[in-house]
């Protein structure tokens, strides 16, 4: 544990920023909800659905989001993209639509493929962190981490070479070179998680030989791609 005056100031500042961001998102969701038809029909929701990497969440009583597992073996929920926020699809809504999880998943994935294809490679930014160059997509689009679910588009934007990806939150995707020490890559991802409204706390992903893997699936270890110097 590292505790110091400088770190305490950073954490307090981050906490205030996160609280303000939560307030802004809540207001955005309220505004968007007012424009939605009620009840939301399937034909209106279908072109707005998107799969979202699932973060830690305990379902409130009577509120169970529709969940699925998608390649590379990671759990997802499904959101209705309202422009400024996402409204998660729950099981009662799915039953009202008379839709199976598979139908919702297929519609959401088709939307994601189409939306991702519109992104220009210049959306990928370059940054220097702890002396290492990394690349990232941050804040826009709000579903940036979901690019891990569409490998062809992921490779079009980041390249098809071996690399390791971190998904600290819904709207941020990090790409690390294989030369970066795994400990350092983890520290960078934690820094992004600490500043996020809804951190995902997911194990890293790897692109190896053109195939996306996830360490959390148990059959792959992204550390094999990284320099493991301590």
Description:
This protein has a six-stranded antiparallel beta sheet with strand order 5-6-8-7-9-10, covered by helices on one side. The two termini are 17 Å apart. It has helices at residues 5-35, 42-45, 91-97, 101-117, 151-158, 182-194; strands spanning 49-53, 67-70, 74-81, 86-88, 125-129, 132-138, 163-169, 172-176, 205-208, 211-214. The chain has 230 residues and is α+β, with helices and mostly antiparallel strands. The chain is 35% helix and 23% strand. The protein folds into two domains: 19-54 and 62-117, no CATH class; 121-224, no CATH class. It contains six helices and ten strands; from the N terminus they run ααββββααββαββαββ.
Short descriptors:
230 residues; 4-stranded antiparallel beta sheet; 2 domains; globular; 6-stranded antiparallel beta sheet; alpha+beta; 10 strands; 6 helices; disordered N terminus
From the helix content, strand content and strand pairing, which structural class follows? alpha+beta
Distance between the termini: 17 Å
The overall pLDDT average reads: 85
- Helix amount, in percent? 25-40%
Main sheet characteristics: 6 strands, antiparallel
Which segments are poorly predicted (pLDDT under 50) over 5 or more consecutive residues?
Answer: 1-17
Number of helices: 6
Dominant shape: globular
Biggest sheet strand line-up: 5-6-8-7-9-10
